[in-house]
């Protein structure tokens, strides 16, 4: 049995113009674990997450998920690079801050779009899977609703089900509750907790410290484009670094 981590990132760098946002990120994520990325606004958390499925193209560094890997520092002809990126993207499903559902499609049609149109899966089996996923996120019976007929929390749960419908090896969640009204946050966090308990590999950018404490096997604290501290959930209660301590006390005081 392989003991390699499912995800391996080495030397990840990214600048937007003069703004050096990622300054050499190394991380690993074991299969079946939950990793949370925390840190101040602008520290690069979202850019790390988006680099994992190449929604941002890193300037340098290697990203490997399972057996798909891209070395962004190495020149490759356009066709080879396209193929490498396609293979890497296929390993992950993304959940955005605002769910990005198709407004003119029903919940079920939203869930079938990726599996049927992109992955060319059989409609009947994809539909059966989609119904099971809706049940899992507590939305059985809402197949025919349109996004506008759902609450923000329900829409985000559809967003999670849609990511799972792609049968990814890892689910990437970018501040999945920060666009929600406070009373809707709990139902979405509960679904994510369930996924972690079921053994999904998760990487979550979040400001929800208590949630991170509950689910995280690994905590990565970013500051100014580097990982300033890493460890288990104890990082959230007993950080070694002063900047982690200051960040946590600010967030906990605000929440
Ligand atoms: N597409 C882009 N073009 C230019 N600058 C960008 C782009 N995306 C991000 N940045 C900049 O990169 C820096 C890091 O952004 P990022 O979104 O990764 O931080 P973050 O830690 O996720 O912050 P937040 O908690 O506020 O979402 C910020 O200075 C941001 O303005």
TrEMBL record:
SMART domains noted in UniProt: AAA
Broad class of the protein's primary localization: membrane
Membrane topology according to the record: Peripheral membrane protein
Keyword flag ATP-binding: yes
Matches recorded under InterPro entries: AAA+_ATPase (IPR003593), ABC_ATPase_HisP-typ (IPR030679), ABC_transporter-like_ATP-bd (IPR003439), ABC_transporter-like_CS (IPR017871), MetN_ABC_transporter-like (IPR050086), P-loop_NTPase (IPR027417)
Record domain ABC transporter: where: 7-249
GO cellular component, one term: plasma membrane
Top-level taxon of the source organism: Bacteria
Entry's Gene Ontology molecular function annotations: ABC-type amino acid transporter activity; ATP binding; ATP hydrolysis activity
Compartments where located: Cell membrane
Tagged with keyword rRNA processing: no
Keyword field: ATP-binding, Cell membrane, Membrane, Nucleotide-binding, Transport
A Pfam family reported for this protein in Swiss-Prot or TrEMBL: ABC_tran
Name under which the protein is recorded: Amino acid ABC transporter ATP-binding protein (PAAT family)
């Amino acid at each position: 049995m392989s003991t390699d981590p499912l995800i391996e990132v080495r030397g990840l760098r990214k600048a937007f113009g003069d703004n050096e946002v990622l300054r050499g990120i190394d991380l690993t994520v074991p299969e079946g674990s939950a990793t949370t990325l925390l840190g101040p606004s602008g520290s690069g958390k979202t850019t790390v997450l988006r680099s994992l499925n190449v929604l941002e193209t890193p300037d340098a560094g290697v990203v490997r998920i399972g057996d798909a890997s891209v070395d962004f520092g190495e020149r490759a002809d356009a066709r080879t690079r396209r193929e490498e990126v396609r293979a890497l993207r296929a390993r992950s499903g993304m959940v955005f801050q605002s769910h990005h559902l198709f407004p003119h499609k029903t919940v079920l049609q939203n869930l079938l779009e990726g599996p049927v149109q992109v992955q060319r899966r059989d409609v009947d089996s994809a539909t059966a899977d989609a119904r099971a996923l809706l049940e899992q996120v507590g939305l059985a019976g809402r197949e025919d609703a349109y996004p506008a007929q759902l609450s923000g929390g329900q829409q985000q749960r559809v967003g999670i089900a849609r990511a799972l419908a792609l049968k990814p090896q890892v689910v990437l969640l970018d501040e999945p509750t920060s666009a929600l009204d406070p009373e809707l946050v709990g139902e979405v966090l509960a679904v994510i907790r369930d996924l972690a308990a079921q053994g999904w590999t998760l990487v979550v950018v979040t400001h929800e410290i208590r949630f991170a404490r509950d689910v995280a096997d690994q905590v990565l604290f970013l500051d100014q484009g580097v990982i300033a501290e890493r460890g288990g959930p104890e990082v959230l209660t007993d950080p070694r670094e002063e900047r982690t301590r200051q960040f946590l006390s600010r967030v906990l005081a605000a929440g």
